[in-house]
Amino acid sequence: MSTLEIDRVRKAYGHLEVLKEVSISIGTGDFLVLLGPSGCGKSTLLNMIAGLETITGGEIRIAGKAVNDLSPKDRDIAMVFQSYALYPTMTVRQNIEFGMKIRKVAQADRGRAVKTASDLLQITHLLDRKPSQLSGGQRQRVAMGRAIVREPKLFLFDEPLSNLDAKLRVDMRTEIKRLHARLGTTIVYVTHDQIEAMTLATRVAVMKDGVVQQLDEPQAVYDRPANVYVARFVGSPAMNIVPAVLEAEGATVTAVIDIANRPPARIAGITLSPEAVRRYAGKKVLVGIRPENFSIASGDIPPSLTIDFDVVEPTGPDTLAVFQLGGVEVTARLPPKQAHAGQEAALSVDTSKTVLFDIDTETRID
Amino acid sequence: MAEALSQSSKMRLGRLAIYACLVIVAVLYLMPLWVMVTTSLKPLDEIYGGSFIGLPKVVTLDAWRAAWSQACIGTECTGLKPYFVNSLLMVIPAVALSTGIGAINGYILTKWKFPGANFVFGLMLFGCFLPYQAILIPMARTLGLLGLAGSIPGLVAVHVSYGICFTTLFFRNYFVSLPDELTKAAMVDGAGFFRIFWSVILPTSIPIIVVSCIWQFTQIWNDFLFGVSFTSGSSSPITVALNNIVNVTTGRKQYNVDMAAAMIAAIPTLVVYIVAGRYFVRGLTAGAVKG
After folding, report:
1. pTM, two decimal places
2. Lowest mean pLDDT: which of A142-151, B32-41, B248-257?
3. I need a labelling partner for A202 at 20 to 30 A (CA). Which of A157, A179, A317, B215 fits?
4. Top CATH class, A240-365
């Protein structure tokens, strides 16, 4: 059974439509990440799930029950906010207890719940402090504690890590992942950080302009992006998108890409469905190649392309090599010390990971 | 070395000039208070004997006693005491109500926004710029219709309605700096409109509550125009009674009593400033700093 169903949900402010028929469904224990740039409607959607924004059209169901007209407190949810939103005049303990007090939970039970949650989050020694005496990471933990004691069907996280510094963000990311594994709760998590999405999610919904571009497991979103937008948004450095012409060779196709002052690159052996082969043979398309799918050609496999490196950026574990391909700048991720600026190189491409996009609709060709 | 010395002595000279200026200005500023205090402690004969500025030869509290409980206001010689009580009866409910309503207004205008909230706030701001004189006649008519004319509750109503514009402005601007996520978190926790107000919003607002109280207290306590227009006789506030003591005299003008009476009328606002003044400055700047 699905814990959260978002069924053709719309949101409009007057004539401005910020969400257009969004449908997402996740099961118990899923970790759904809503990923997108600011203004794509992801936070609005989260607030609608929480009941903090009204729903213009469609239906949201939590554990099978339509919640459109329920107030936040009746939806069996808990939420962690970007600014943590801890009550500034209350101690940590009072912050965590506040919701239970309103629900008239007996004092002994409250104490037990606070103890369990604070042990879990290692904030027991902070219980009598005020939020202003806590560091960012500690505030974050308290905010999570406040959500945990609620024991909701659904946890909602609104960009919870974006106010932390880089090091702490990575630590807290691991912490959230561990918490999810231990509590087995269902989580909806909003972020604009694609690494958070990749590391945390069991399902990712990539959003743009109020439309879900792709809803899938993180690896599938990474390997088989639904369109050029998703391909560019997920992954760092971004996927290279290069214009090419397709040539059919039996059941597979070869992408032919122009290179200035050199013979064209021929990336052969890309598998497509027979209809797609028929439809796109001889046509212009966009080829998507992840930086790590380039490699220096070695003896047994013939190289796909020969190019000159423009710029080489060593990052430590590997080297990013930039060169021109099909009139655009392309980045390859190579082992360290294998590339030098100005050097000529023969590269091969992992065609099993290469994706093709229609040049007009920019959607993936299968 | 010599140069450094002359540099520092120049600095010292500059300092001296600054302090001298400050002392002169302070003396000028405190002069009236000095005259008031010394005059109020002198017997009347000594004042008429020509000593106006100097220290009293004989210190006596007779003038204070007279101002408090014996001076004649109109035909009744009760001193300021009953009017002081009137003013307290007026100022306490008026300050409490206008601050409370202003707080709720500010809360609604920032955390429970409705379409047109900013327009409503604009209209309320407009009230801050209305001159007192402009509303005297319509207010008198309204009080008459409400059956509150000439009474202390009527005066309270006037001050509350006139003060709401200011208190709403204070609280609205303070609450605007509180993150909206605070209210949202409380809603998810299950708190309703008033619970959020009491448990989350008000405890964070102590500085602005103090500002609002000080402001309203001084405005209302010191008000003369509304007091003289909407009350009469024994229901007058202390400012009106003070005016009557000073302006209506038979025989010799009792400068010492007048001075003592003026100071009695001014003491409550002074006390409020001294007790809560540091919150006043803190509260005025509190909105600027994120906590």
Report:
1. 0.82
2. B248-257
3. A317
4. mainly beta
